[in-house]
Amino acid sequence: MDLCHVPATREKGWYLALMAPNVKGPNYAWLDPSRLYCHPQGLQDCVADLLQPFQGDPIDMVAGIDAMGFILGAATATTLQKGFLAIRKAGHLCVQTQAQPYTDYSGREKVMEVRTDAISPGLRILLVDQWVETGGTMRAAIQLVEQLGGVVAGVAAICIEDSEGGRWIQEHYKCSHCVPPRLQPHFDRHQ
């Protein structure tokens, strides 16, 4: 799809066609959404779709998860006119942090961290990431926010897969994603 073309009719998720399939092998995600971010209308519509379920909800800050969640998170924060907090992989912040170990989608053990001075008790935070596959990364971010007294106002991602972790997150938190129900099985099976 042309990065300047905007379809005459734009249904929820039309911009998903901008994503590119993996051509580098099993060590990479099966689909790359970064091309979607290059399309101005696609990015705007993606953020609007992510925010639609949260219209009228109190949100004090948006937190994006390292690293691709930074793009959608910052765009979402700008749209909401709220501050943006980066939740990082361990070892990148030079201030006091709270850390949380987790297992990512590839089965690797990692540690996530967040600065301790950004979240005050009761602060309502919308968590944004590019993708929720197994839910391990998002659950670590949720734990960090809650350990510091923050409230998870919601979880937003381009796709929340129908995995055990994805279902747990959707059962416990208000969620938003961009994949229409008719396409969800294709995303869950990585087609």
Describe it for me?
The chain is globular and about 45 Å long. It has a domain at 58-186: Rossmann fold, CATH 3.40.50. Helix 3 links the parallel strand 3 (61-65) and strand 4. By secondary structure, it is α/β, with parallel strands linked by helices. A seven-stranded mixed β-sheet has the order 5-6-4-3-7-8-9, with helices on both faces. The protein has a two-stranded antiparallel ribbon with strand order 1-2. It has six helices and nine strands. The two termini are 18 Å apart. Helices cover 29% and strands 27% of the residues. Keywords: Cytoplasm, Glycosyltransferase, Purine salvage, Transferase. It catalyses: AMP + diphosphate = 5-phospho-alpha-D-ribose 1-diphosphate + adenine. Pathway: Purine metabolism; AMP biosynthesis via salvage pathway; AMP from adenine: step 1/1. It is an enzyme of class 2 (transferase).
Q: Which CATH C-level class of the domain at 58-186 is it?
A: Alpha Beta
Through-space gap between termini: 18 Å
Mean pLDDT: 93
Low-confidence spans: none
Overall strand count: 9
CATH topology of the domain at 58-186: Rossmann fold
| Widest β-sheet, arrangement of strands | 5-6-4-3-7-8-9
Q: Based on CA inertia axes, which overall geometry fits?
A: globular
What are the SSEs and their pairings?
Blueprint (H helix, E strand, L loop, with lengths): L19 E2 L9 E2 L1 H5 L1 H12 L9 E5 L3 H12 L2 E7 L7 E7 L5 E7 L8 E9 L3 H12 L3 E10 L3 H9 L2 E3 L6 H5 L3
